[in-house]
Known about the structure:
By secondary structure, this protein is of the alpha/beta class.
Amino acid sequence: MTKKRILISMLVLLLAGWSSAATGDEDGSRLWLRLDPAATTATITGVKGTAMTELQTYWQGGPIVLKRQKGMPQDGYTIKSQGGKTVIAASGDAGLLYGAYHLLRLQQTGQPCDALDISEQPAYDLRILNHWDNPNGTVERGFAGKSIFLNPDPARMQMYGRANASIGINGTVLNNVNAKPEALSTESLLKAKGIADQLRPYGIRVYLSINFASPMRLGGLKTADPMEADVVKWWRDKVDEIYKLIPDFGGFLVKANSEGEPGPQDFGRTHADGANMLAGVLRPHKGIVMWRAFVYNPQSSDRANQACEEFMPFDGKFADNVIIQIKNGPVDFQPREPYSPLFTAMKQTAMMVEFQITQEYLGAANHLVYLAPMWREFFSFVKPSSLRAMAGVANIGDNVNWCGHHFAQANWYAFGRLAWNPSLTSGQIAEEWLAQTFFAPNDNTPQACKTQILDVMLASHEACVSYMMPLGLHHIFAGNHHYGPEPWYKPAGVRADWTPPYYHKADATGLGFDRTLKGSANVRQYPDELCRLYNDINTCPENVLTWFHHVPWDHKMKSGRIFWDELCHKYDDGVHQARHFLAVWDALQPYVDGQRFGEVQRKLRIQARDAEWWRDACLLYFQTFSKRPIPQDMEHPVHNLDEMMQFRIRISNYENPACGYTK
Ligand code: GCW
């Protein structure tokens, strides 16, 4: 080859490389941390550790000093520009790490980094992910593949550590709350130790879910009665074994006497007896017990009443290292629920909220539903300062993109950011996530496109509520997989509180669950002012109307429409919004890499079809009770009810719904 030809072919190669870097496909595996290693290593001095390594690798600015400073709040940090340097100060390694990620976030979102005077501290000391991962690698309500902890891959664990640390998450429960006794076998503990060792550099402690009957089923004892000395001894020995392996082990998460899981009530003891016994053996090691309030039995006339009924008698009776972990709503992670009244009823008990990041009831990993607005809604009722901690049920699996849907990563991100600071707005969080995940500071995406996709995120939760369960409807999902609509589902032999008719109570007079003082009196569990508000059909907010009332089909709504017409319009609005989301995304094609663009587009198409499926199935079914026409001024169903009732979702494994509704 002549010199000239060599030069030309080099140029061609260079250009090819350059163009694929500019438009190159991305698989989403880097999450929001799409930082490229810095070309030259910046001068980072001071405390050595993960903060220093991260900055040395990714920081593209001037010199940084990492400084330990006594007396600062746990995990808090300051970042100050001083004499040409940036000084990050914190009392410990975790604070320095959070400060480092703060700085990297500024860099990645293109913000000025030269005159900084930042001071941060988290709202909660405990910011914890709950993984519902099973020992065989499946993930309950997981839609992103298998458990990342099955065969923990070091590179993946490192990325998991970095991602969590970058948003302030500092704890992880490694296994499902439906826990197998084997979770505490020596073999499992050794595995947990391996994971703990990999996550420690990122300030993350590990916790385990336990099976309350472990002393019997693993230890061979005759009982698991928390008042029996040999049971207490079994737990003490087990806990000692754990702390020998994992000196900074966080503690236990417990689902007891719920949905068939064993608990202290099986031995004639109370939740307080059970929780306090475990708290006692963990206390010398500074471990905690997170005891879940998600308990209900099939006999009750209103499942929404039960957490208060079961837990109020024990308010003030739990040990100080027990935290009661309460789902945000009184039933179960529905698209919209009022807040769980236990949060305002309990006065002398440490509480934490459990949000569900994985979209069990929100379209799995197929629908774009940004959850920050839903969580912020919870905080408009429950004061953040009344809580001790925050937990989120993870949406993470071994899929290349971690969460199954590129936009589901935003929910992991938002959970961490809100656990750090629950008063951040949904918009702020979405904007910074989008900037890091999709748009580089100097890219050429038109501002209008950026604003539109931000608006899609912000509207997505309400849209999903509209096309699935507007106006306070809840739990009208298909049995088991909870993906599509099945408001008619009521097979013989299934307990009533697992079937939709228990919740919607559709009949010739109207729709909804009467939880007023004349009904199940659930309203009484709320503070007086809210009780009055919810109890009266004319003052009850319409977005929870059928949650609290059996609403007559002709009830006059604020819009002037009758309830039936309003319901129809809500469903239809939801469908139109879902289609609009797709249109907004399509306009982004020139500005997003091909792989992620295509993957998101495919999911948005599923979402738009599913929205139609929801609308048609629910309206046609409820119409058999309302006997009223679909209003003329909206789109009419394009399916038939029989077709909808016969339709079975085509998924071999319901925990991984590959596709939504298609004919
Ligand atoms: O929402 C229900 C889920 C179960 C889950 C349970 C719980 C882990 O359908 O899959 O079990 O709640 O939170 O314990």
